[in-house]
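Batch manifest, entry 17 of 40.
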Amino acid sequence: MMGGWNDRLNFASKTTAMRAWNAARTYTSYQRSRLTGTPNMAGLPISISFEPTTSCNLRCPECPSGLRSFTRPTGMLGKALFQNVIDQLAPSLSYLTFYFQGEPYLHPDFLDMVQYASRKGIYTATSTNAHYLTEERARLTVESGLDRLIISIDGTTQDTYQSYRVGGNLDKVLEGTRNILAWKKKLKAKTPHVIFQFLVVKPNEHQIPEVYALAKELGVDQVLLKTAQIYDYENGSDLLPTQDKYARYYQKVDGTYGIKNSLDNHCWKMWHSCVITWDGKIVPCCFDKDAHHVLGDLNQQSFEEIWQGSAYQDFRATLMRSRSEIEMCKNCTEGAKVWA
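Output type: structure tokens
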């Protein structure tokens, strides 16, 4: 496995003077805001996440898409909306993630959108359960210019894999992985950087060494171990791993559980990134899965109007005053170890 060096070099190669300047302005305004206690926003986001769809073929626990438990509208991202936003942000935007909820490959125009952003020199990434990486979709993925492909593989045997990826088929994941790697080789392409993401939970933690071996055997570029977000963690969960280093939560003296990081009154994510739902709503981050904190609608306003607008600044001010007032922040890992 090559690790992440080639991926980092690829990302760096897409940096332009304007993107570097925007990143510097954004970071400086964040630090100024921390010092003064008043939100100041000088730049535009360095990174955004677009939600291609809320639909998913699996039924994973701890996932609103898998549980079919959304209270917000569900659907698929329109190409015109996507292209309009990318046209607004392309000069300053460094990183674009095609993922929030749902399985991106269920969107019929997903790879067209990847190609649109890729041709503007934006680093593109997505996360998939790899059930739709047929020969044709694998070839189109490589040809689209996608820079990073994260494949969720939470077990190295079918029984373990399906204990979390309910309704999933490990053989299809492996077949899809092989298809991607084969087409990279055929087309002599350096991208996408293929990552096996292993969400560490109690039923699969014994297979951590095996996922590294499997990745090496297949020729996957990198393995990332991810700690799991648990919604109702206070009284424990069957998903909490026994090895403490793979958990976001710790057991208190009274037997209940708490999140490991402290809830400080600042958050870098509110300055460098945001999430755009399939229907054009901007929400603060990936923890707002049901879009309770809509800060603007891209069908009605430009991105910059929303980003610099009063609703966003008020949200940043609330967070800097008392982050514990915001419900989704109470289970946030900003400052905790997400990648084990």
